[in-house]
Amino acid sequence: MEPREKPQTTVGELGESGVLARVLAQLSEASAVELGPGDDCAVLRHEGDIVVTTDTMIEGPDFRLAWHDGFELGWKLAATNLSDVASMGARPTALTVALAVPLETPVRLLERIAEGLDAACRALAPGCGVVGGDLGRAPVVTAAVTALGDLEGRVPVLRSGARAGDVVAYAGELGLAGLGLSLLFAEGLASDGTASADAVPGLWAAHPEVLAAQLAPAPPIPLGVAAALGKATAMMDVSDALSIDSERLARASGVHIDFSAALLERGFGEQSGVVVPVEAMLHGGEDHGLLATFPAAVALPAGFLPVGVVLEASKAGSSDEAGPTATSQVPGQDVARLSLDGETLIARGWDPYTVQYPGAA
Amino acid sequence: MEPREKPQTTVGELGESGVLARVLAQLSEASAVELGPGDDCAVLRHEGDIVVTTDTMIEGPDFRLAWHDGFELGWKLAATNLSDVASMGARPTALTVALAVPLETPVRLLERIAEGLDAACRALAPGCGVVGGDLGRAPVVTAAVTALGDLEGRVPVLRSGARAGDVVAYAGELGLAGLGLSLLFAEGLASDGTASADAVPGLWAAHPEVLAAQLAPAPPIPLGVAAALGKATAMMDVSDALSIDSERLARASGVHIDFSAALLERGFGEQSGVVVPVEAMLHGGEDHGLLATFPAAVALPAGFLPVGVVLEASKAGSSDEAGPTATSQVPGQDVARLSLDGETLIARGWDPYTVQYPGAA
């Protein structure tokens, strides 16, 4: 038996190759892999066109270590990138992960991040895994994930394909993640406004569903392929909020989306025993479920629930005639692309450079 | 005409969509692209297996804005990832780029980074380009690049294929980048030890070759494919230093590498008019050229110059019988895999978690 190292061994003490060995030990092999970590690149075999997406999570603006265990952080990193791949109608095949941390970071945190990445791939997208990465040094914990997917001969499902008459549908949790974040901001801050771990165990005990939705979301990744096979005309994942992301889809498609409060209530008014207000569904954000449009004549794939309809932009009383080539993406300047039961709906969502929140860097 | 905005508009003032529009305007389209930036993923068409690699550069440990113009930083980000793709024998097809910066960062810096990324792709790997990315917020400038390449039906050239009797060859600049870094540390620090821009214009005027090699390296990317077609048995790019990286290649292949000082001198003793000592070639680092081994009977592809020979590990007096499965990667513990004219050569190189240098975070 090797002597057990002390639990808080830091990356500065262990050095790059030691940290790398500990991280790699957490990872399972991806099925598309011809060559895994250890050379200059990983090598992958794909059947069809490749989709690729990248996303960064940085301590402070994007997460707080007081709230996120390393495992949950790794899980969320994987889940949020996998949902982008799914939303193209592709099967996720591989992640690359760049982690940069301060020297005093416990190696255990990186190990837990790797465990969470691997567990999320196995649970949400079996066959997908981490195939490569990079370790570095940064003033705060910094993680950048790139996800690849295989279209397997299918045509990608874009944001721009929604047509008037289509049904708007959603699959996954909706609004719970936003409720979780509100709860953390309400109960999880110290008196100086910084995030505190003190209340987190109590919040997990009292509100496990909304904490899980915020800290370790489980988007329905296989439904991306199901939607593509089920003739979805447009699809995207909801990361910023249903309102702002559906406005992006409506603009890209040159259409208008009218949500139904009754359909939202019926489909998502109670999730895992939690009552979710329509306001939270529309503007909560970080859901990472799949928003898609389908021709009215087609049955929705299992897992998708109807939430609205696609209308022609001009017939919905739009004051914005710009159509899909409009360049403005400023929320509120293009209000007529969205409505709720026929009433104009103003999108609200996340902008990393303008949103203000307590405890932010 | 739009009124010109003030030169130092910050990302916090402009917001995400404004910054994104400015960054996207700098980018050319990659030839493998079926769908570029703007949807949840980019879509790419490849002919053969895919290679993928990722690398992060963070202000402080990896670069200092006092020394690096944004253009050079973008260029180096592209070049260092392209060389990893090239070293597998693949043709680079696409980059994804995640940039996270403080709110007070001038938008112009991100624009210049994008210009540099695009220019490096056009110059070093025509047809490759930035296909997607992510913008976020961080306490220091943080860039994570993932590069993809197409093997076009070829077998990847791994680190593990070198065989006794092979010729060791190198293509690219060697040692100049390390001399550039030494010069910046000698002349480019303020009295408090932090990086200063004051001396940089003078250093560029006096020593353009070594500054360029350090700040905006130009690795011979197409020679990766040339080496693969030219029957290279093993290949990797030299990022940490020729000594430490060739030791990795020797260990992965279960062989010993003997460098020739005379061959190093003849091939790389003078580069662009700069005299480069063998010591700088072996231990300088950040060269990003291609280290490859070729069967002795094969002519070296144009651009590769011989620098040594591959020997059997046991016949070179190795005290380490572990072969390619050895897990230790600590420099100095496996000295017998490398020699210079038959004398044991101790590898030295870069470890982000243990290297100390002036002005580091």
Walk me through this protein's architecture:
The structure is a homodimer of 361-residue chains. The first copy, chain A, has ten helices and 15 strands. With 361 residues, chain A is α+β, with helices and mostly antiparallel strands. In chain A, the strands form four sheets. The first copy, chain A, has a seven-stranded mixed β-sheet with strand order 8-12-7-13-9-14-15, with helices on both faces. Chain A has a four-stranded mixed β-sheet with strand order 3-6-4-5. In chain A, strands 1-2 form a two-stranded antiparallel sheet. In chain A, helix 1 packs parallel to helix 3. The C terminus of chain A is likely disordered.
Work out the oligomeric state of the chains in this entry.
homodimer
Please bin the fraction of helical residues of chain A: 25-40%
Note the gap between the termini of chain A: 44 Å
Which value, in Å, is the CA radius of gyration of chain A? 21 Å
Query: What's the mean pLDDT score of chain A?
Result: 90
